[in-house]
Design goal:
This protein is 47% helix and 17% strand. It has 15 helices and 11 strands. The strands form 3 sheets. A 5-stranded mixed beta sheet has the order 3-4-2-1-11, with helices on one face. Helix 5 (154-164) packs antiparallel against helix 11 and helix 5 (154-164) runs antiparallel to helix 15 (307-324). The longest helix has 20 residues, at 55-74. The chain starts with a helix and ends with a strand. Bound molecules: flavin mononucleotide.
């Protein structure tokens, strides 16, 4: 392969590696054989407590594949994707020379490097009809097992916003979840710039007093004392207001979970996020509780929680299910709205590429 073509493949994989992943875990590796790209997943990078059926890892891979597909078209290829049912390679992309990118895909492609999580409060305004139809159109999938719902009813949004904070409420009172949550925080700008896995503290958009408190809360002894006097519930109430400050919640549900269904969820999530970015809308995934609820189906994980915590998580999960479609499994939830730009963004390691 000549250098010019290698450059095109690097552009495709740089787009892939710009995809979102849980706590910026970047759980991927790419193997290039001629014009074939293999997408390998690294589930060990995501914590099992929030990665039931490796769903978080697979969703991130789906988003990476989506970006690669868009960039491949922009680089003049027609990509053909085949999913693999087992093994570390989850999908193979064959690049056929020739083809062009249509205008709608080009606007998504241009949003790949502009897309970021925005954890600020958003303005109290409704989605415009144009933005709404663009979001809904971007979520059309060839996989009929997937569905996307937009929830704009203020009352329903308040209830969901509170249910979502079950994640923080539990993380501030449960030793294992607390340890996991705080081990994922990056405290320095240098670590963030280096593309290290984790959530940079400034991307959490905490007001200054909460930032100082957060540094103390990382000590379990301190968090445990505060948990005894109801501090987690107070935090949950404050965060519920923040979660509800959006124009809509988006929910992606599946009829049945599978490796392919999770990859497809990731692809749709990324298309919606790119479409939101192209329409100058902000987005934040707020999905910890749906992941936690599914993880509790694992016998090893369920023992890490006491009865009260399990009931609280199950109740939140039921609220979310009921607000979309009780017969389907809600996999991913996000808030969408109009917000000021994020204070800081997360960086990536350069993509790991093996040219064979
Ligand atoms: C499966 C998955 C779950 C996520 N869950 C959350 C979440 O619950 N809350 C949140 O603020 N961000 C969540 N994120 C967003 C990531 O933290 C974020 O994409 C990553 O840190 C990289 O930052 P970026 O989106 O700005 O590129 C999730 C992302 C994925 C792919």
């Amino acid at each position: 392969m000549d250098e010019a073509e290698k450059e095109k493949i690097r552009a495709i994989l740089t787009a892939a590696a710009a995809a979102p992943s849980g706590s910026n875990s970047q759980p991927w590796r790419f193997v290039v054989r001629g014009r074939t790209i293999e997408f390998h997943y690294l589930p060990e990078r995501d914590h099992p407590i929030l990665n039931y059926e490796e769903s978080g890892t697979l969703i991130a891979l789906g988003a990476a594949i989506q970006n690669a597909e868009l960039e491949a078209r922009a680089q003049g290829y027609t990509p053909q994707i085949t999913y693999r049912e087992s093994g570390s390679c989850v999908a193979v992309m064959e690049l056929e020379v020739g083809g062009r990118i249509d205008d709608a895909s080009q606007s998504l492609r241009e949003a790949i490097l502009k897309r970021h999580s925005n954890r600020k409060a958003y303005k109290d305004i409704a989605l415009s009809p144009e933005s709404k139809s663009a979001l809904v159109d971007s979520a059309i999938s060839g996989d009929s097992a997937l569905a996307f719902s937009l929830i704009e009813d203020r009352e329903v949004m308040q209830v969901i916003a509170r249910a979502l904070t079950t994640m923080e409420e539990t993380a501030l009172g449960n030793k294992t979840l607390h340890e996991f949550f705080f081990s994922e925080i990056l405290w320095s700008a240098d670590e963030n710039r280096a593309g290290k896995q984790g959530l940079y503290i400034k991307t959490l958009e905490l007001p200054p007093p909460a930032q100082a408190m957060f540094r103390l809360l990382k000590h379990w002894g301190f968090a445990r004392v505060l948990a005894k006097i109801g501090f987690p519930k107070m935090v949950a109430q404050t965060n519920a207001k923040q979660n509800a400050s959006a124009s809509a919640f988006g929910v992606i549900t599946v009829g049945k979970t599978s490796r392919t269904a999770y990859l497809e969820v990731g692809k749709i999530m990324e298309r919606i996020w790119l479409s939101a970015t192209a329409h100058e809308l902000s987005m934040q995934i707020v999905t910890g509780v749906t992941f936690l609820a599914r993880s509790l189906q694992s016998s090893e994980i369920t023992t890490l929680f006491n009865l009260q915590e399990r009931e609280r998580i199950a109740a939140a999960h039921a609220i979310i299910k009921k607000s979309v479609d009780d017969t389907r499994e809600p996999i991913l939830i996000f808030r969408i709205g109009t917000g000021n730009s994020p204070t800081e963004v997360s960086y990536r390691r350069p993509p790991e590429i093996l040219f064979n």
